[in-house]
Amino acid sequence: MATRPVSRETALGASARFRLAVTARYWDREKSEWTDGHTNFFTVWSRRTLAANVTSSLSVGDPVVVQGRLRVRTERTEEGESRTWADIDATAVGHDLTRGTSAFRRTTRDARDARDGTDTKGTTDTRTEPDWGTAPADESAGTPRKQLADAGVT
């Protein structure tokens, strides 16, 4: 991220934007090293719950992954020059986990709905993570391969 997220409340809910710098890297065969190419800048726009989560989760310099719709606009200035902007209407934004770690915290339904401006009726998101542990081996059931064969799977 090139700039910190800036948020504001609108009649349609929260909105946030930040600038994203994307630098292409390539292998320079002559120098036998990675070299930075041209840097492109995009303005990333997020709405409602995503805007609130972006504002509270991201900082300048964080490597991020953005998914959304790219919009390119061109306008003429008063001096007759043409200027082009590239915006991304984000549907998802997250930390780039190839470059580091992140600690995810689920927002409660009350907090999400309050940000969206909808009525929650006192409900909260109480889902828990499933138990991904493996069950102890049952010797009478045999090996997994035998279990599959007994079920008619070859």
Tell me what you see in this structure:
With 154 residues, this protein is an alpha+beta fold. Helix content is 16%, strand content 41%. It contains 3 helices and 5 strands. Strands 1-2-3-5-4 form a 5-stranded mixed beta sheet. β4 (64-76) and β5 form a beta hairpin. The protein is flat.
Describe the secondary-structure layout.
Layout: E1 6-10, E2 13-28, E3 33-47, H1 48-57, E4 64-76, E5 82-95, H2 109-116, H3 144-150
Parallel strand pairs: 3-5
Antiparallel strand pairs: 1-2, 2-3, 4-5
- Mean pLDDT, to the nearest integer, reads 81
Instruction: Evaluate the radius of gyration.
Output: 24 Å
In percent terms, what proportion of residues is strand?
35-45%
Order of helices and strands: EEEHEEHH
Q: State the distance separating the first and last CA atoms.
A: 51 Å
Unreliable stretches (pLDDT < 50, length at least 5) are 118-125, 137-141
Structural class: alpha+beta
| Main beta-sheet annotation | 5 strands, mixed
Spatial shape: flat
Descriptive keywords:
single chain; 154 residues; alpha+beta; five-stranded mixed β-sheet; 3 helices
Sum this structure up briefly.
The chain is an alpha+beta fold and 154 residues long.
